[in-house]
Request: fold
Amino acid sequence: KVYVKMNHNSPPILCLTNHLQNVEVIDPIFQWYGPGGSLSSENSNVEIAPTGTLILKHFNLSGAYNCSIVYKLTTMQLHRKHIIKYLIYGKLSIQTGTLHSPTPVSTQEADPCSAGIVTDTFLADTGVVPENLKQSALKLD
Reply:
């Protein structure tokens, strides 16, 4: 189960899939969205590295967090867009043990040359889904 201790920093949350971590991407542009909208490093509670890694400082807002990455694999290729979705929950007290890095709930890759979206789904053991997020969590599959 993935939880972040309330009012503490989250573990680093990646905006890359395992596949994208192992290839060279050209001109990546990262954009994070949380339950409250767009996230930016200008907010003192958010740190976004140039590699797209997110750290939530003084975490206090559970819910769906999405990262969008626009990139190319070759200079001749059109830009591709990939969306990674995380469900991140806060916990008031942590039992003995360690925090684990969040695992994507799902990823979507859109090819600008096609009308459809190719979706690869990765399920994570995120624990009990709060009532207000059950519909959203069901839509991620």
User: Anything to note?
Assistant: Residues 134-139 form the longest helix (6 residues). The helical segments are 18-21, 134-139. The radius of gyration is 16 Å. The chain has a mean pLDDT of 74.
